[in-house]
């Protein structure tokens, strides 16, 4: 399946000395490290952000908050735990995004989630909704509003039936454009297992999606 992501899935090699300098209090080193990952982190935030927050919060604001949190928590990063620095920074950023979701959505459910009846009925999660939005954005065929709604319902129904881990590895590899190794780290899998899981999951998704009008041309 063609990825709608235009960012490079490979960051520049990480200079370990920058991590050490940052941990010693060098703010410029930390800023350089964060700057290397900023495009990938911004892409992750934009993809994962609840669609009802997209008009209220800019991904850049999330990253600004994440950088402040990162500076306070840098001492927690331990390379010996075999977590790459990027994966750890992504984790910190994701935690900040989830915090914003709780603050801005759960406390304002009546106003922010009026349109979630479809998702509620299907029992879909945030990952499914993000994947569906990404797939709809990548579809090139022109559809009227009703047809677009039917496509969305069909996609959400399909994703709701998939294994949670399959949905997540598709989100990581296709929409966040992570490497197989990074996805394996995040999911707690071996690289071999993650690779096999992704190939199987994307193959199943392709087989099912070609049955939905307007998506056959993606494959």
Roughly what fraction of the amino acids lie in strands?
under 5%
Largest sheet: none
Task: Estimate the global geometry from the Cα principal axes.
Answer: globular
* Helical fraction: 55-70%
| Poorly predicted ranges | 1-12, 112-123
Q: Would you state the CATH class of the largest domain?
A: Mainly Alpha
- The CATH architecture of the largest domain can be named as Orthogonal Bundle
Overall pLDDT score: 80
Detailed description of the structure:
With 219 residues, the chain is mostly helical. It folds into 2 domains: 16-110, Orthogonal Bundle (Rna Polymerase Sigma Factor, Chain: A), CATH 1.10.1740.10; 116-214, Orthogonal Bundle (Arc Repressor Mutant, subunit A), CATH 1.10.10. It has helices at residues 16-23, 27-48, 59-73, 85-104, 109-112, 117-122, 126-138, 145-161, 164-175, 180-187, 191-209. Helix 7 crosses helix 8 and helix 7 (126-138) packs across helix 9. It is globular. It starts with 15 loop residues before the first helix and ends in a 10-residue tail after the last helix.
